[in-house]
Specification:
By secondary structure, the chain is an all-alpha fold. The chain folds into two domains: about 90 residues; about 375 residues, no CATH class. The protein has 17 helices and two strands. A two-stranded antiparallel ribbon has the order 1-2. The longest helix is centred in the last third of the chain and has 33 residues. The chain is globular, with a radius of gyration of 23 Å. About 45% of the residues are buried.
Length: about 450
């Protein structure tokens, strides 16, 4: 019931006219205060619609940002009143130190930023608020049901985004026109593809690794994956296709040789169908020396490397790439597209925006995520542990693969989803560690003697 009340509250906040947002926000805050764990899945559910904010007290604020900023004090107040089953304050781990390094790198970038206002906005949306969600999840997701709900909410958000994208094509009469790409609820088909590839990876992880006595979960995950795949196909985003393809092969290989074989055959057949139906300008045209975006990325990478050569330690600052690119780093042959806001590569992006410290921290975080994910998948533990590990590994694969040619982190939905997956890994990771061996030798004898003394 609190989950439903919170969802209705966010819907009212986003859709109601005039001052109705107050009622919606009050319902959401009350629901979170009753059951703090619902904050994380409700925030995740708003991610596909964060680009559609509403005017609030002279400012534009999205349902995602409102949900984050109001959930934190509600959960903290509940934790002060009643520590225990509802809110738990976890002990620091290595990931918390990496998160601190991530914030430090973002703050250090203000020493060199030329546009502090834009950098402050980026700090708020892409560093501080996603980390708020990370700690909300850490403090409130303490049961299997809570973690599973978050995974299924990611899948549900992907299904909704896919349906909205296809429905928008149908409403415009473009459903049968292969030259028109699905975009809604985002402003770019590539952005929609980024979110759907990650949601699809989570759905695939649930279908492959969440096999329990209730087989309906596997069928539900498979059906959801099918809906997400339809929307992903209609984005015609080759980068998103590649990211999901890589995630699919990784997860299938972890599941076993049989699953890998089925995955390879299925992807080959799907690739053949797409090659026969997708407009050729989306594939061959990308390599046209005059207008192809694939070769154009090389020009962006060259300009990015020039930026790094001039600013190797602290970079240029958060959200400063566009201004530097237009201010003299754009190559002459790239004149056709001057409005480039990021370098289309995750290594270059983190280095330019957050300096060498930010890149190192992210690299260490990726390594930890891969290690923890593999340990969970191979631990032989509960199905949920394997599903969490597989989902995190799939999202990391899309992060690395699609992020090598496009955006990877520096969008609100991608940043928030990344930290949510890291939080789930941190929550489930200790459960996969083997028990410590029992004491032996003199230590055991001393312990036994002490116990006998207490008993006597």
């Amino acid at each position: 019931m609190p989950l439903a009340i919170g969802a209705v509250g966010l819907l009212i906040f986003g859709l109601s006219p005039s001052a109705g947002w107050i009622v919606g926000l009050a319902l959401y805050i009350g629901a979170v205060a009753m059951r703090p764990w619902i904050a994380t899945p409700l925030i995740v559910a708003t991610l596909p619609f964060y680009l559609h904010p509403r005017a609030l007290l002279g400012q534009e604020i999205s349902a995602t940002e409102a949900a984050i900023l109001t959930a934190l004090p509600a959960v903290f107040a509940r934790g002060l009143v009643e520590r225990g089953p509802m809110v738990r304050f976890p002990r620091p781990t290595m990931v918390d130190w990496l998160a601190a390094g991530f914030v430090a790198a973002a703050l250090l970038s203000f020493l060199v930023t030329s546009y502090p206002r834009q950098s402050m906005r980026e700090l708020r949306w892409l560093v501080v608020e996603p980390l708020m969600v990370f700690y909300l999840a850490r403090c409130t997701l303490w049961s299997d049901r809570h973690c599973a709900t978050v995974l299924w909410t990611i899948v549900g958000a992907g299904v909704v985004a896919s349906v909205v994208g296809i429905a928008s094509l149908g409403a415009a009469g473009d459903l049968t026109r292969s030259s028109v790409r699905a975009t809604a609820p985002y402003l770019s088909p590539n952005h929609l593809g980024m979110f759907l590839s990650r949601a699809g990876a989570v759905a695939l992880a649930l279908a492959l690794f969440d096999a329990t006595r209730d087989r309906s979960r596997t069928w539900t995950a498979s059906a959801s994956l099918g809906v997400i795949a339809i929307g992903l196909v209609r984005t015609f985003s080759l980068g998103a296709w590649g990211g999901f393809l890589g995630a699919s092969l990784v997860l299938a290989a972890l599941r076993g040789r049989r699953a890998l074989g089925f995955a390879v055959v299925g992807l080959v057949l799907a690739g053949a169908v797409l090659l026969a139906t997708v407009p050729q300008d989306r594939i061959l045209g990308r390599w046209d020396p005059a207008s192809g975006t694939a070769l154009f990325r090389i020009d962006i990478w060259k300009a990015s490397l020039n930026m790094i050569a001039d600013h190797p330690v602290l970079g240029l600052g958060l959200d400063n790439f566009l201004y530097a690119y237009q201010g003299g780093y754009m190559l002459p042959e790239a004149w056709r597209e001057p409005n480039i806001s990021h370098p289309h590569n995750w290594v270059l992006d983190f280095w330019i925006q957050m300096g060498i410290l930010g890149l190192v921290v992210v690299g260490l975080l990726v390594i930890w995520c891969v290690r923890a994910s593999l340990l969970l998948v191979r631990s032989g533990g509960p199905p949920l542990d394997r599903a969490v590990g597989a989902a995190a590994l799939g999202v990391t694969a899309t992060f690395l693969l699609h992020g090598s040619v496009d955006n990877s982190y520096f969008l609100v939905d991608l940043a928030t989803l990344w930290w949510v997956m890291v939080a789930l890994l941190v929550i489930r990771y200790p459960q996969s560690e083997p028990p410590r061996p029992a004491a032996s030798g003199p230590t055991m004898q001393r312990s036994a003697t002490m116990e006998e003394s207490r008993a006597s």
